[in-house]
Design brief:
single chain; alpha/beta; five-stranded parallel sheet; 15 helices; globular; binds 5-amino-5-deoxy-1-O-phosphono-D-mannitol
Length: 468
């Protein structure tokens, strides 16, 4: 046990460790950092796993090990110690889930379980991505630094939620790396004649890695000479196999039809790609990249804060939406991209019609929709365009809209116009999609539940679309 404790002081990164030693048969030494480890002792022995579900046939009393805690398993039971080797009394949780609940990790549905996994997805997607010297490490890139440096145009191609991740990537790649970037629905891209040269990078984003339109677009782009880079959640999927390089999003299997955790994994992966392109193009220094990477990592805890504190606000917002015929999502910049995804999520799980608009476009048509009680859901986190979005919301309010705002913690000004506020922690605007998307996922699910919908299996939809 002492050797494992000592070894852990030298280990960098996230791990869940179960070690055995030939000199000490019958002992398993367990440690963790940022990766789940669950320990339990039952009548037939002591057990360790990465998930409660693996243990419930053997014991219902489990200990979810915390960072800095160690467990020594023997046939007689388990001894828990801290970093200094002192014996501690761990927190034992009694699991009274049935098998169905166990599969869902104790949550009522997979969608909620997957939303709650997002802090872990952020951490896992980032593990090992920055070297101690401050260099980004994407070893599966498949392109040399020279090839990357030559890139002068980027197309992000994807469908549905993955397309919305692409909209966020455009802001990042153009903002940091200054490379012209277009985002296109793969179903459109494949049937037109885009300008592609050997210095074009096509980034294909697909959770399943098998969406028919995205695959067809990749093949077409390769024939035309583009370099193709895949962002997918499924190891060995067609998108991974047919791309020059790939980043895996580490969301693990996503079961609910509505993408949530895979979206967050995509945005984090695309952020890494944008940072790398910016470094290669000498637009960001190592110091800047390291600072941004640290802030990107912090979003894991910031998501957790939202999950821990905003449930009531989300419920209140859902009550304002549940009987509506339609809802409008608005925002500017990153807020607009988040709004598109929020509207898609609401449509697909609650069957409530929703549209998203860049807030500045309201006066060019959508404002005609607003009448008393109409729900307007705004992403108005603190950014350079915050005041503009607030003034758009005042126009909605003046026409009787119910204004629901995803706003930055500490922003009191928004209290004057919002009927309901869902708070998110203050983050740099480029990282706001990772945090501000979460309340909209929760909102879509809550509205769907209030309307009696099956959030995991919405009608007419399949998890992956392998035909045109
Ligand atoms: O597997 P993909 O990411 O390629 O799937 C693309 C879309 O079908 C998918 O994002 C769909 O829009 C989701 N159901 C949205 O939640």
């Amino acid at each position: 046990m002492a050797s494992v404790r000592e070894a852990c002081t030298h280990v960098v990164g996230a791990y869940g460790l179960a070690a055995v030693c030939a000199d000490e048969p019958g002992v398993i030494a367990v440690a963790r950092k940022d990766s789940p480890i669950v320990v339990g002792a039952g009548e037939t022995g002591a057990y360790v796993a990465s998930d409660v579900i693996a243990l419930i046939d053997a014991t219902r009393d489990v200990v979810v090990l915390e960072d800095g805690q160690f467990a020594k398993l023997t046939p007689a039971g388990v001894e828990y110690t801290d970093e200094a080797g002192n014996v501690i009394e761990p927190k034992v949780t009694h699991i009274d889930w049935d098998l169905d609940m166990a599969e869902k990790g104790g949550y009522p549905d997979f969608m909620l379980k997957e939303i709650h996994e997002q802090p872990r997805v952020v951490r896992d997607t980032l593990v090992g991505r920055m070297t101690p010297a401050g260099e980004l490490d994407i070893d599966e890139l498949g392109l040399s630094l020279e090839e990357l440096n030559d890139i002068d145009r980027v197309y992000v191609i994807a469908c549905g939620t993955s397309y919305h991740a692409g909209l966020i990537a455009k802001n990042l790649i153009e903002g940091w790396a200054r490379i012209p970037t277009e985002v296109e629905a793969a179903s459109e891209f494949r049937y037109r004649n885009p300008i592609i040269t050997p210095t074009t990078l096509v980034v294909a984003v697909s959770q399943s890695g098998e969406t028919a339109d995205t695959l067809a677009a990749i093949r077409d782009a390769r024939i035309k000479g583009a370099k193709v880079f895949g962002i997918t959640n499924v190891v060995g999927s067609p998108v991974a196999r047919e791309s020059d390089g790939v980043i895996y999003t580490k969301a693990n299997k996503e079961i609910a039809v509505a993408s949530t955790k895979s979206f967050i994994g995509q945005v984090v992966s695309l952020t890494l790609l944008a940072l790398l392109l910016a470094q290669v193009k000498y637009r960001l220094t190592t110091k800047q990249a390291r600072m941004l990477f640290r802030e990107l990592s912090d979003t894991a805890e910031q998501i957790q804060w939202i999950l821990d504190t905003q449930t009531e606000a989300v419920h209140e917002a859902a009550l304002l939406c549940k009987d509506a015929q339609s809802a409008l999502f608005v925002g500017r910049g990153m807020g607009a991209a988040i709004s598109y995804e929020g509207a898609l999520k609401l449509k697909e799980v609650s069957y409530l019609h929703a549209e998203a608009y860049a807030a500045g476009e309201m006066k060019h048509g959508p404002i005609a929709l607003i009448d008393p009680g109409f729900p307007v859901i705004a992403v108005a986190t603190k950014s350079a365009t915050y005041d503009k979005t607030v003034s758009n919301l005042m126009e909605c309010k003046a026409r009787g809209a119910k204004v629901i705002v995803v706003a930055t913690e500490g922003d009191e000004e928004i209290n004057k116009i919002a009927d309901c506020i869902i708070r998110v922690p203050a983050v740099r605007d480029v990282f706001s999609p990772i945090t501000a998307s979460v309340p909209l996922q929760l909102l879509a699910r809550e509205v769907a539940i209030l309307r009696g919908c099956d959030v995991d299996q919405p009608r007419n939809l399949a998890k992956s679309v392998t035909v045109e």
